[in-house]
Fold each of these.
Amino acid sequence: MMKDIDCGALRKEHAGKVVTLSGWVHRRRDHGGLIFVDLRDRSGLVQVVFDPDTSKDNFVQAEKLRSEFCVQIKGEVSIRPAGLENKELATGEIEVKAKELNILSTSQVLPFALDTRTDVDENVRLRYRYLDLRRPELQQNFILRHRITKAVRDFLDQEGFLEVETPMLTKSTPEGARDYLVPSRVNPGTFYALPQSPQIFKQLLMVSGFEKYFQIAKCFRDEDLRKDRQPEFTQIDMEMSFIDTEDIYSLIERMFTHIFDKVMGIKLTTPFPRMTYAEGMRRFGSDKPDTRFGIELTDVSDLVSNCGFKVFADTVAKGGEVKGICVPGCADYTRKQLDDLTLLAQELGAKGLAYMLVKEEVKSPIAKFFTPEEIKALLERMGAKEGDLVLFVADKPTTVAAVLGRLRLDFGAELGLIPENQLNFLWVVDFPLLEWSEEEKRYVAVHHPFTSPKDKDFDKDPANAVAKAYDLVLNGVELGGGSIRIHDAELQAKLFSVLGISPEDAEDKFGFLLKAFKFGPPPHGGIAFGLDRMIWLLAGAESIRDVIAFPKTQKAVCLLTDAPSLVSEKQLRELHVASTVVKE
RNA sequence: GGAGCCGUAGUGCAGUCGGCUUAACACGCCUGCCUGUCACGCAGGAGAUCGCGGGUUCGAGCCCCGUCGGCUCCGCCA
């Protein structure tokens, strides 16, 4: 090794020792007659002093040092003179008096500074990702990621889980996200798909009798990106036989207890609270409610069903609902602010947004449509007091939830109502099995088409069928979800039929799974967690890109390598693929 | 597929009202000075096709149209 100790590990106890360090020149302070260098390696920083009295040759060499030169330094650890300690630095009580300097490699001037003082354009950061990743705060994210992944492996190993790899080149499946496709050279005209998740394989492993499976699995979905979504991402994927929902809840609660204890020394309280999907939508307008603060949705449909305000009354008459949120202390909102809120509501699908500014009197464009008694009843129901702002949306339940759920989150953040250091885990349970797709004019699976209904006779009332599906939510972020699967070929066939998948299609797409289920499949179920999202949340990172070493932009481009890129005609010919894009 | 915001030295930004000159400032960089700094200091210097293309105008970093890229959001993401 070209170093015998890490920079960040040096302490008073090492005083007098001669050590060899290797790292990068983090900063250089040249006083002419004395040069200070902050030497950085993964462990941290230590101050190195070059003094011509110690070695004239070294000193001359040290004058050449620049930012990010990679160097090896041999020197004596010494206690800093009194009054010259640096409390900001873990190694601030000591410094290293350089005896030998070996410049391992030089560096061009960096395209951007590695400090945190300035937010460098992400474009530039991603193009020079290897430099970006030198920044200690980014490295911390990856150290956290490593430790969490290790804690997961240790825990699941101890619980008797087997880590099994499943194929990356697999079969395209209908339902779900768009697939990334890989053309087959050997089989002209056919394509593999990269897995959206190892779903079917892990179920097959249950048929194989593995009983407890897990995998830290790469997954791929060709959908548009968000700040918490990348085209390729990692899941902690698991599946178990001979279990039901309670077994999953308990296992996962123990797993998170283990992770938080081992990695962060935080003791979690279990069991985690549970909430049905229906309740989440009703109270928070979300299937992943952030329960750390209030501003819950309140239904006032019954109070306005006969009121003079046609928009409200008609909505209720047509089977819609009128709900509101009470925003504390915002009665002084300006016309502009209210207009912006209305605009946001409209972008989310609402026709409008009604408001009441609760001052000595209620100021509202719709006040004139209500009797004083009705207004009093509304405010009372909303729990509004003087100084509050009350917002109403009248629409179909999904729109009301979308708009008020979003406004609630925005206000929570803007008004600082969200306690930063609170960890609110929440099981969201009893998801609907199916939802009607207007686009496809058929039912589609809310979770996936292998999810077990709670009731075998779900087909009698598909719209209201409840699934044995669950999500784990932390502070309003969906960490992961899963379900108990169907292990009965007949029940599976029935679900396919309700989904409008013909027996022929089912045979073509999932025939192998249906066949496998004819050979004594065990009852089974599982869950998968988005590892990147988990680290993102726990690291408090700005974007999910900050916990992925080489992430892609919103257009799914890797700015470092310039992927995706054109390939040669020869490659395309070999793959029996022709591009339909017309060249310039 | 749609909406919004952004794009000016290596980096972060000012310039927003079309005409203040040589496009300002800070950090970084280069040169010189400096033996106790730690975001070292001091003096000087270099560095900008104002993302790209077109248009309006006597005149465009600034206005208009298009385009490319980045970010955020909606749709999408079983």
Amino acid sequence: MPATRKIFREFIARKGLKSTQQREIILDEFLRSGSHLSTEELYLRIRAKHPHIGYATVYRTLKLFAECGIAEPRHFGDGQTRYESTHAQEHHDHLICTGCGAILEFEDPGIEQLQEQVAAQHGFHIERHRLEIYGLCNKCLPSRTEAAQ
Amino acid sequence: MPATRKIFREFIARKGLKSTQQREIILDEFLRSGSHLSTEELYLRIRAKHPHIGYATVYRTLKLFAECGIAEPRHFGDGQTRYESTHAQEHHDHLICTGCGAILEFEDPGIEQLQEQVAAQHGFHIERHRLEIYGLCNKCLPSRTEAAQ
DNA sequence: CTTAAGATTGACAATCATTTTCAACCCAGG
DNA sequence: CCTGGGTTGAAAATGATTGTCAATCTTAAG
Ligand SMILES: [Mn+2]
Ligand SMILES: [Mn+2]
Ligand SMILES: [Zn+2]
Ligand SMILES: [Zn+2]
């Protein structure tokens, strides 16, 4: 987290941007809050303590976070962009429950490696990827099964 | 393709919907056109020959195609939904070039199997998944490399 | 063939997330 | 302090998609 702050400050400096109260407040709340929050969810949390901060500023700032690499944007099928902090989190992919919306994270070196292999076969240079598996989590599976019988 | 038509007709019948000129025309153009077309792209093609068909009807009809399984919706990061026909196409995933927008398809049984394994470890029941790999295709890689040097 | 109930359509308004505008305002360097 | 230029909040604009609704078409019955 200190590293995260440092990365953002240096990014700001390098780009000739400016360090502002709003950006600090938004970064604080972003790092404090749980992962996979939508822009709106983060905005609402911030507004509780800082009602003067505007919606557009939260949008703009989250894009800056993504640009400098301290946040990853995610798209889980509801029409909203969600962000998660990259600090102390290796790359990972997601299992998304279509029943309750739960999000499980996983990382599978085997899958990652096979992706490299596939890309190589096509002469393709990977910049990033996204693997999302949708289905029912272990809590939702039983209820769905009994509904069907 | 005949199977595709049949599937759609039966779906229409089963649901108590109706077979209309518009739906036939849209299905024709959908099957004739290339894959990964956005709704707008398909609409424009249709409009060339059938200017009376409305935008909303194309949207509605593509959703029907997806509902009965003859089309798969895709999201490649530009904000549009694209559809591809499932006829004569097994499930597959995509390599998307961030340089020229080219879309390469692939299918890797190893990756699919590892996904099953990961899901099983989490007691998760897979309904569907999406794997998208973004990067540079073999045409765009050279130009990017020389620009960087 | 005619009819009627109900599904469908096209034009257009409405949504929803996100972006842009722009005048007022704040930061950093001199 | 001062000033140039980045930043902000409010509101308007955007772009994809969906909802509305009166007119129209389908289909199965009569
Ligand atoms: Mn995550
Ligand atoms: Mn494809
Ligand atoms: Zn669940
Ligand atoms: Zn390319």
